[in-house]
Q: What sequence folds into this?
């Protein structure tokens, strides 16, 4: 039997090499995991929730998919305070209230797509998603003589496919950063508190055209915003121009 005798110095060298190799293997695994995670994160598309806005501006918006009893009152309040906003309209609402849909445009407000039938968009095929957008756009154009540029997914339901198809048709996908929860029939005071407590420049506020206490809460909200120096604008006026990107939190930023 041959016995190898290794001196202390060579043994230290071998041990050091072993540590280096082991460290390299671990580093490779960590780097590989990081790359996979980074690529995965880059593939996750998000809509615009808010805007990194230097100017003191916010946007308020209304989704219209049911009822109309309070819409005229809301429009009158907006006129009183010289405020223009964005209304996202669904075909099933436009069909019931075509004159009111046209009046929204006549009063100077922006119109956005909100789908044809108010479905969960992520549950549709590509062709169905496209049809929802195109049919919605056509009805808005035919009824209101208006060409929308924005889309808000019903229920806030989206995935990469929805955003990619929306982009391919030339529309921007819009969410919201402040939810009034007016559809839950909160009191006017509760709506005011939800909207105003953390409001900041670049926010997009979500209301509904037929919320039970939305019209009641609006004057206080608008007055408070205007006193604090905020300009209330349609969403398109809030969005940034030029070379922009949307970060992982849905904030539109200038590159």
A:
């Amino acid at each position: 039997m041959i016995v190898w005798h290794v001196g202390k110095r060579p043994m230290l060298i071998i041990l050091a090499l072993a540590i280096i190799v082991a460290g390299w293997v671990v580093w490779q695994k960590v780097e590989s995991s990081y790359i996979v995670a980074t690529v995965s994160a880059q593939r996750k598309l998000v809509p615009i929730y808010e805007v990194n806005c230097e100017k003191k501006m916010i946007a308020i918006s209304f989704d219209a998919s049911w009822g109309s009893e309070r819409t005229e009152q809301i429009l009158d309040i907006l006129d009183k305070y010289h405020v223009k906003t964005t209304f996202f309209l669904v075909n099933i609402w436009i069909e019931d209230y075509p004159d009111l849909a046209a009046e929204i445009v006549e009063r100077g407000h922006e119109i956005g797509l909100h789908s044809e039938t108010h479905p969960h968009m992520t549950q549709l095929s590509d062709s169905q998603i496209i049809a929802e957008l195109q049919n919605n756009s056509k009805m808005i154009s035919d009824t209101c003589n208006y060409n929308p540029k924005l889309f808000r997914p019903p229920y806030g339901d989206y995935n990469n496919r929805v955003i990619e198809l929306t982009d391919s048709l030339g529309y921007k996908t819009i969410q919201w950063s402040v939810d009034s929860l007016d559809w839950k029939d909160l009191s006017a005071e509760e709506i005011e508190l939800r909207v105003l407590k953390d409001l900041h420049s670049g926010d997009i506020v979500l209301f509904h055209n037929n919320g039970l206490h939305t019209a009641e809460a609006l004057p206080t909200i608008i007055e408070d915003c205007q006193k604090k120096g905020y300009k209330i604008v349609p969403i398109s006026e809030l969005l940034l121009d030029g070379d922009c990107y949307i970060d992982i939190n849905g904030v539109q930023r200038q590159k």
Summary: The chain has a mean pLDDT of 90.
